[in-house]
Amino acid sequence: MLKIGDLELGTKPVIAAIIDEKIPLEKIQELKKEGVGLLEIRVDCFNRPINEVTQYMKEVRDSLLMPTIGTIRENDSNRDSRVGFFRQIMPFVDCVDIELGCGISDEVRRLAEGKTIMVSEHNFINTPSFTDLQMIVERALGQGAQIVKIATMALSLEDVRKLLRFTEDCDEPLVTIAMGAVGTVSRIIAPLFGSLFTYGYITRPVAPGQVSVYKLLEEFRFYYPGVL
Is 70 in contact with 108 (CB distance < 8 Å)? Predict the structure, then answer.
């Protein structure tokens, strides 16, 4: 059984709340009570020194006991220090998200021994063909992925259908997202096609077409009665 921490994946739809700033623990606790099952801490979005971020992550872990993904996307301020940042956050996460083809992937994977590895690909231009999507999966598996995350830009409803069909047909553990306004619906219904979880923001969207965790909770109660 594939797990992130104690959370078994694939048994029911899961909402992941994105923590991209120092959100009060009480607010996250309330979201947990409402049905949020997973946290993604976007370390790269915090405008704080890494030691302050890790202290906050420790408080989140100790207080909330929620399964957590640690994500550090490359930006101008962390380009030369991401490996060190991953090393510092590793005690406080159950899963790491590293980009497909990322040069530091092997180092991060070694640091994350015993934790779940998610390899992600973000295409902000279009939605590739079935063949190209399958190639992404194969490359991610070759990079050590236990979960493959694919986010593509949906330019039409056909793009959304294509990504959902691919999700349904793929035998590997996937998280799939159709980005953009047209793709917003995928953030709600992708679990119906086998996507392991979906992301919602708390304070502001961090990707095109992203919806709030509060909206996801509302929609999940409709689409997945009894799950939350």
Answer: no
Distance CA 198, CA 15 (A): 5
pLDDT at 17 over 90: yes
Q: Where residue 227 falls among pLDDT bands split at 50, 70, 90?
A: confident
Q: Which two tokens stand for residue 79?
A: 């380009």
Per-position DSSP letters for the chain, written without gaps between them:
--EETTEESSSS--EEEEE-S---HHHHHHHHHHT--EEEEEGGG--S-HHHHHHHHHHHHHHH---EEEE----TTTTTTHHHHHHHHGGG-SEEEEETT-TTHHHHHHHTTTSEEEEEEEESS----HHHHHHHHHHHHHTT-SEEEEEEE-SSHHHHHHHHHHHHH--S-EEEEEESTTTTTHHHHGGGGT---EEEESSS-SSTT--BHHHHHHHHHHHSTT--
Report pLDDT digits (tens) over 42-98: 999 998 999 999 999 999 999 999 999 999 999 988 888 999 999 999 999 999 999
Residues marked active site are found at 122, 149
155/179 Cα distance (integer angstroms): 9
Reported for 125-129, long-range contacts at CB under 8 A and 24+ positions apart, including other chains, are: 125/153, 126/152, 126/153, 126/155, 126/159, 127/152, 127/153, 127/154, 127/155, 127/159, 127/162, 127/163, 127/178, 128/152
pLDDT of residue 207: 86
Share of the chain above pLDDT 90, in %: 91
